[in-house]
Amino acid sequence: MIQVSYPKLKLPPSLWAATATPAPDTPALDGDARADVAVVGGGFTGLSAALHLAQAGAAVAVLEGAEPGWGASGRNGGQVIPGLKADPREILARFGPENGEAMVRASGAAADLVFDLIARHGIDCDGRQTGWIQAAHTKPMLDGLAKRHRDWAGRDANVAWLERDELTRRMGDGRYHGGWIDKRGGGLQPLSYARGLARAAQSSGARVHGASPVQGLLRDAGGWRLQTPKGILTADKVIIATNGYTDGLWPGLAQTVVPVYSVQVATAPLGENMRGNILSGGEVLSDTRRVLWYFRQDAHGRLIMGGGGSAYESGAAKIYQGLRQRVHSLLPEAGKVDFEFAWNGRVALTMDHYPHLHELAPGLWAGLGYNGRGVAMATMMGKVLADRALDTAQPDFEFPASPVHPLPLHALRGVAVTATRAYYRLRDALES
Ligand SMILES: Cc1cc2nc3c(=O)[nH]c(=O)nc-3n(C[C@H](O)[C@H](O)[C@H](O)COP(=O)(O)OP(=O)(O)OC[C@H]3O[C@@H](n4cnc5c(N)ncnc54)[C@H](O)[C@@H]3O)c2cc1C
Known about the structure:
Layout: H1 15-19, E1 31-40, H2 44-55, E2 60-63, E3 79-80, H3 88-108, H4 110-120, E4 132-135, H5 141-153, E5 159-162, H6 164-171, E6 179-182, E7 186-187, H7 190-203, E8 207-209, E9 216-220, E10 223-227, E11 231-240, E12 258-267, H8 272-275, E13 284-287, E14 294-297, E15 303-310, H9 313-330, E16 339-349, E17 356-361, E18 364-368, H10 375-390, H11 413-431
Parallel strand pairs: 1-2, 1-11, 2-8, 4-13, 11-18
Antiparallel strand pairs: 3-7, 4-6, 5-6, 9-10, 10-11, 12-15, 12-16, 13-14, 14-15, 17-18
Flavin-adenine dinucleotide binds at residues 4, 6, 40-46, 63-66, 70-73, 75-79, 81, 213-214, 241-245, 247, 249, 262-264, 306, 344-347, 368, 370, 372-376, 378.
């Protein structure tokens, strides 16, 4: 059995930690237990998998090292974005008509799945399907956005083109050249959503254990055995859902992704006059920069700004000031703006920029690598993984399994991330 060290972890301070609905009771695994399916990791991927499995009648147990939503799921920007980074046409060209089409369908439906789960399970998380805007920061970027918009419009997705004037009206600022809105997207309070998913999974019969880091995983005649500090869970099948926090639990898995600390800041609630100026319809926005800007208001009128990242947590703290300056540039007429929160968390990047579903061994799967865009996609991946474990996968609504390819020179990832980010920032600055 591989031994993995895992410290006792508290939820770090953030806007979401300060304003979330209360955490559900998730006692640590104590003693020996059995399940049909064990889920390692209690973020959107693992909790969505657990919910879908439990609803299908499987005996499921989640083992989370800290508490539900402790990872990126409780710390992100709360932007619910349908689709993948690549356009449907690119996905079809790369994965072929069958697999590509299934991926486009599943990823395109991911935001609807989020809002459907929120409605169906009454999850109290300020969820609003008010649209995701992608805005062009330079004129040449409009072409790519127009193609993306046409691609989704041709598939009858609920999308619209935004001319510069219309975008300026929604933004209160004319810096963007135009863009498109995907009305399937929207915003939510991510930690409340994670806690709501955990509660919904529990109500459907799943056991959710916090403070239960899985320190060893092996298979013997009785099934998969998952070792935690105080107990052992034996299961027929296992789903690993640890994304940017993936450790050495399964050989080579951590080396398939590059963890990067992504960063957010939030203002104090804006005055009524300011709130009305910027994305007051509840839209969430990302732009086309390589090191992108993404922002929105929360339910109390705070402006949340994200973007940039670092290979090291210490580097993340250096980015906070740059994000605050962005906010000032968006709200010049506000004068002094008070900031209440700054925080970070780990995203998982893949070399091909696609999320990965791996079949690591018979009855053992992993889903990870959302490249900083996992609120919707991780929720969908959880459903897809549950379908795999239940043998109910639908071929036209799927994610093809990819081989495990540990990245060459993974040990040098910190240097590579730092150099790439610096290069991207320079290119963005030259184009602006
Ligand atoms: C600052 C920031 C902003 C972001 N903004 C957005 C956004 O606006 N929109 C968007 O779509 N995406 C965004 N993302 C990305 C999104 O949050 C993630 O893609 C998504 O939450 C991944 O969910 P997950 O469940 O796969 O992983 P996580 O939520 O990271 O959960 C993994 C869990 O695994 C647990 N774990 C790890 N190892 C073990 C072990 N051995 N045993 C037990 N448990 C273990 C960890 O404790 C952790 O809770 C952002 C991410 C960050 C960090």
